[in-house]
Amino acid sequence: MAGAIIENMSTRKLCIVGGILLVFQVIAFLVGGLIAPSPTTAVPYMSVKCIDVRKNHHKTKWLMPWGPNHCKKLKDFDEAVSRQIEANDIVFAVHIPLPSKEMSPWFQFMLFIMQLDIAFKMDNDLKENAEITLDVSLAYRDDMFDDWEEIAHAMEIRKLKCTFGSPKTVESEGRHYDCDFLPFMEIGSVAHKYYLINIRLPVNDRKGINVGIGEIKDIRLVGIHQNGGFTKVWFAMKTFLTPSILIIMVWYWRRITLMTRAPVLLEKVIFALGISMTFINIPVEWFSIGFDWTWMLLFGDIRQGIFYAMLLSFWIIFCGEHMMDQNERNRLSGYWKQVGPIAVGSFCLFIFDMCERGVQLKNPFYSIWTTEVGTELAMAFIIVAGICLCLYFLFLCFMVFQVFRNISGKQSSLPAMSKARRLHYEGLIFRFKFLMLITLACAAMTVIFFIVSQVTEGHWKWGDITIQVNSAFFTGIYGMWNLYVFALMFLYAPSHKNYGDDQSNGDLGVNSGEELQLTTTITHVDGPTEIYKLARKEAQE
C-alpha cells in the first residue's frame, strides 16, 4: 500500500513538472505568434541612373537618386545614346531607406540581393557564362544635410545565370532574360539612419570587362532586414531566459559540489550544455543598439555552433553512460570516435563562416560563392561537415540500439536483484526512456515547425487574430531548447536525501553474487537524482 502511494505521488509530481514545462512551451510559441511581428521585412529598391561626367570619376562625390542635391538622371539608355553618354559615365544610385523613412539599429542587419533587367539584342547578346564587374561603393550619414561618409568600396565580379524563353530572332529584341538573383551585400549592424549605394559598370573592351553581358536596362535591389518589433520581443526573451538558466545552473552545480564524490562525466557534460545555452542566451545584442558592432552575425553563428556541438556531444555521452555494464564509462577519451566527427564538422563550418562573414567585416559586398575557387572551397567544407554529421548519426543510432538491447536484458533480470540494485536499474531505465522521448519530441517539433514556416505564407489568420508562423517558430523553438536544458539539470541533479537502510553498502555490495556493475551516474552514498526519486517504486519505511 505504501509503495503504491509513493508511486502515485512520484507520478503526480512528474506530471506537474511536465505540465509546467508544457505551459512555458506554449507561451513561447504564443509570444512569437501573437505578439511579435514577422521576423524580417523585404523592401524592393529600383536604382536611379545618374550621369557622372566628372574627370577620372573621383570617388569623393556621391550621387543621390533624389532629394535637394539629387543627380542628373537618365530615363533610359536610349537617352544616353542620343546624348552620347558613355556607359562609364552612368552610375546606378540607390538610397536606403525609401523617402521619408529612416533605418534603425533595431533592424540588426541588412542583406541585399540584386536582380538585373537584361534585354535581348541581336548585336549585343548575352554570352554564355558571362561575368559582370561591379564597381560598388557604400556610404552613410545620420542627418539629411550631413556629408556622406564612405563605409566600403570594392570591385566585385558576379556570374550571370540567365535563360531566354524565346527564339533569339529580330522579333524577340527587347524581351528580357530571366536571370537568377545575385548576392550583393550583407552588413551585420544598422547603426545609421541613411545609406547610399553607388554602382558603376566599368567597360573596357581591351580587357574584356563587362563585354558580352547583354543590354542592361535596370538594376533592382531587394533589401532584407529584421523587424524592430521582432527584435524587441527577441531581446526580451533572451533577457528573461538568461537568469532562469543561470539560476538552475547554480543550483545544479551546488548539488553536485555537495557530493562526497567527484562529479561524473554525464554531470559535467550537462553543466557544459547549460553553459553553452547561457552563452546563447546572454543578451549582448542590447549593446548593438548603441554601438556599430558589425560582427554580431558572426558572433551569433559561433554561439549557435558551440551549443549544437555540445548538444550532439551530450546525446552521445548520455547514451554511452547508460550502457550500464560498459567499462569505458566516465571518461571523455572513451568517446573520441563519436565526438571526433562533431569536432571536425564544427571546425569545417567555422572555417566556412569565417571565409564568408569574416571577410564581410571588411568588405560587405564579398561572397564566397561568386568565384569558382570560393565555390569549390565552400562546397568542400560543407560536404566534409555533412559526412561528419552522417557518421555521427550512424554512431548515435548504433549506441541507442545498444542501450535498448542492454535495457531489455536488464529488465528480465530485475526481479532477482536486491531492492536497492533493482531500484537503481529501474531509475536508469526510466530516465533513459523519459529523456529519449523528450529529445525525440524536441527534434520532431523543430523539424515540423521549420517545414511549416517554409511552406506557409508566413502567417495564419483566424477571424480577427493573426498568427505569425515564422515568429512563432523562432521564439517557440528557442524557448523549447531552453526548457530542454532546464529539465536536464533539474531531473539529473543529485539528491541528498536518505532513502533508508536498503541502500546501505551491504545491500549494494557484490556479496549478493550479482556481477552487474553500477553506473557512475548515481552512487548509493550521495543518493539518486531527482528523476530517480520520481521513479521510485518502493516505499521507504
Description:
- Belongs to the wntless family.
- GO terms for molecular function: Wnt-protein binding.
- Keywords: Developmental protein, Golgi apparatus, Membrane, Transmembrane, Transmembrane helix, Wnt signaling pathway.
- The strands form 4 sheets. This protein has a 5-stranded antiparallel sheet with strand order 2-3-10-5-6, with no helix packed on it. Strands 1-11-4-9 form a 4-stranded antiparallel sheet.
- The chain has 2 domains: 5-39 and 229-492, Rhopdopsin 7-helix transmembrane proteins; 42-226.
- By secondary structure, it is an alpha+beta fold.
- Mean pLDDT is 81; it is low at 1-7 and 498-541.
- Helix content is 46%, strand content 16%.
- A hairpin with a 7-residue loop joins strand 5 (131-141) and strand 6.
- The termini are close together.
Topology at a glance:
Elements: H1 2-35, E1 40-46, E2 48-51, H2 77-82, E3 90-96, E4 110-119, E5 131-141, E6 149-159, E7 162-163, E8 178-179, E9 182-187, E10 194-200, E11 215-226, H3 228-257, H4 265-281, H5 296-321, H6 336-360, H7 372-413, H8 419-455, E12 459-462, E13 465-468, H9 469-491, H10 505-508, H11 530-534
Antiparallel strand pairs: 1-11, 2-3, 3-10, 4-9, 4-11, 5-6, 5-10, 7-8, 12-13
